[in-house]
Amino acid sequence: MEERQKYFDEALSDFVHDAACGGAIRHLVDLGYSLPQIVRALTYPVSPEKVRKTAYRYMLESGLLLRGLEGTEAFLHIKLNRSDREAAHRLLYKKIQENGEAKTYLSCPFGKWVCQNGKGTGEERLRAELSCLNPREQDYIAGIAWDAPLLYHRMNGRMREIGAKLLLHGFSDIRYYFMETKEIVSAADEGR
Length: 192
Fold this sequence. Notes:
This protein is α+β, with helices and mostly antiparallel strands. Helices cover 54% and strands 12% of the residues.
């Protein structure tokens, strides 16, 4: 009986949470808000951890985040010359235009730092690894509940700026996947 009551209480809590702020969280995720920005924008008091879980669940359900990409083994691999930043930015811009944001994904290896080191320490390591990003960009990445070593983030305005910075700073695990033209873009020289 106690187990049924616990299940009911959790379901009721989830329903109230979704009715009070679930739609707002989903909308703010669609706008590219970071976790701190979402928490500040809500008029209903909710813990950052609850916002993080709701946002993450929505990112997976909506396809903004994917656990894997199918059929990329046969994609053409293009290596970017990191020393020519202007040419690299032009190429990435051109490829995103050709494929569209909905058909462009960025590999996100951020979960491996969190998973390897555990909560707290892993998040600190994540922020240290992301030192090439500004605090707003770091907040966006750190606010996602990276529960797997590698996920794929669909291109949007926020990831467009973050991905290019990380790729050009030598992160070898950062790759752009262009699903329409069947291409992968990564850094040419050895990364971090």
